[in-house]
Write a structure and sequence with these properties.
The complex is a heterodimer. Chain A is mainly alpha-helical. In chain A, about 60% of the residues lie in helices and about 10% in strands. Chain A is built from two helices and two strands. The radius of gyration of chain A is 18 Å and the shape is elongated. By secondary structure, chain B is mostly beta strands. The termini of chain B are far apart. In chain B, about 45% of the residues are buried. Classes of the chains: A mainly alpha, B mainly beta. At the A-B interface, strand 1, helix 1 and helix 2 of A face strand 7, strand 20, strand 22, strand 24 and strand 28 of B.
């Protein structure tokens, strides 16, 4: 998980290590924070696209399998909802 | 007429699809050995048993389709391999090769294993749940589109991409890497590390050194003892502190809302700061603000958990649920304040 964690002070300063992948950096402005959130949404959507590719391969291999079909409909629905939120500026 | 109808019904049931095939194997597997399975369609369940030195595998395959001959041929050729090699037992379900994929065929195989409780278990599944119960030798489970359920195990690692992870009564180390599903932890006593991306994380009665980190999901914890670190980037954090046996609580949040609920009469030591965010509390603690920065500090009683809050574009609400006071909001602050 690539997370550039924007904090002003952090538990590491108090002697407690942050989870791996969390890097404490100086706080940044709102545009940077908003852009990073947009990047995260891109990652989110990319992950769903990868899932759909994997599911389609499974559908070719085992087309009638109910679990595979459910996974396909769920991924499609998740992607549609995410795109809807993104287009409406709701993230 | 009735006899004819009865006969027809019996024939219909006997030839009904899907066809099922059951397989069973037993193999020597002393404590300390590893059992590995890579599966694709269907459930995998494993139960640890005391005082046994062998594993048992039961396989139930269901094959369905419109062409009965194809279904029958496929089901007939489904097999099971249990192969020991270098203190590892490989469990594999064998599928026949289809001359060409047919859109009408579907199959699914459930695998149930019973192993010595000190066995180490490694499983990889794609479309189906993986359930592990009573394994003390450690387990590593990864799953694509099904749930992972760990109950009464020790030293576990779970990697889930699109399914939920449920862990209860776990001891030893626990590592959960989760992408899109939700994570539920109940009665986990150990060193816990959860790296979560887009699902929610819910922890109840966690004990030990616990780290719950998330990107977009919500983190909820209730109760707990020991040290707890909650780090969330874009999701909410809700923490209920009901027990003074919690020694440390660190909350790190960015572009988030954090709700910290302290049970009345619980002593605590509180410190926190946020950048471009609000701190609201009904507790008798000191609040300061300077430019975009805000601080909170104070304590109640003696001892109790040491609570440290750190935020960036994050709002914190601390205290008993009611009678919350607010530091005046800054104008033109970031999205963490606007939500």
């Amino acid at each position: 998980m690539l997370v550039a964690f924007l904090v002003v002070g952090n538990p590491a300063e108090e002697g407690r290590p942050l989870p791996e992948g969390f890097a404490a950096t100086a706080a940044t402005g709102r545009p940077e924070v908003t852009r990073e959130l947009g990047d995260e949404y891109d990652n989110y959507l990319r992950g769903i696209d990868e899932a759909l590719t994997e599911i389609k391969r499974a559908m070719a291999e085992n087309p009638g399998n109910e679990r595979v079909r459910k996974a396909y409909y769920r991924a499609r629905s998740t992607k549609a909802s995410a795109l809807d939120r993104l287009c409406s500026g709701g993230y | 007429m009735r006899a004819v109808l009865g006969l027809l019904i019996v024939v219909a049931v006997a030839s009904a699809l899907p066809l099922t095939k059951e397989l069973y194997q037993r193999a020597w597997c002393p404590d300390g050995w590893t059992v590995r399975i890579a599966h694709r369609y269907g459930e995998v369940s494993v139960a640890g048993k005391p005082d046994v030195d062998s594993l048992e595998v039961e396989v139930k395959a269901r094959v369905d389709g419109t062409d009965r001959e194809v279904v029958r041929a496929f089901a007939q050729d489904v097999g099971l391999s249990v192969a020991p090699w270098a203190e590892t037992v490989f469990v594999t379900v064998l599928y026949p090769e289809l001359p060409e994929p047919t859109s009408e065929l579907s199959y699914e195989v459930d695998v149930a294993l019973s192993v010595p409780e000190a066995t180490r278990f490694v499983a990889d599944n794609s479309f189906g749940d993986v359930r592990v119960r009573g394994l003390l030798g450690g387990c590593r489970v990864s799953n694509g589109f099904g749930c992972i359920v760990l109950d009464g195990c020790r030293d576990c690692e779970a990697t889930s991409r699109h399914g939920d992870v449920h862990v209860s009564d776990n001891t030893g180390a626990l590592l959960v890497n989760n992408s899109y599903g939700d994570v539920y932890l109940d009665g986990v006593r150990a060193d816990v590390q959860v790296d979560n991306c887009y699902g929610n994380v819910e922890g109840v009665d966690l004990e030990g050194d616990v780290v719950l980190a998330s990107v977009m999901g919500r983190i909820v914890t209730r109760g707990g003892r020991g040290q707890l670190l909650l780090a969330n980037r874009y999701g909410e954090v809700d923490a209920w502190i009901e027990d003074s046996a919690l020694t440390d609580l660190d909350v790190v949040a960015e572009l988030s809302r954090v709700q910290l609920n302290l049970a009345r009469k619980i002593p605590f030591q509180l410190g926190g700061k946020t950048f471009e965010g609000l701190i609201r509390t009904g507790l008798p603690v000191e609040l300061r603000e300077e430019g975009p920065h805000r601080w909170v500090s104070g304590q109640a009683g003696r001892g109790g958990p040491k609570i440290q809050l750190t935020g960036s574009w994050a709002d914190f609400t601390i205290g008993p649920d009611s009678a919350l006071e607010s530091v005046p909001a800054r104008t033109g602050t970031g999205p963490g304040n606007g939500r």
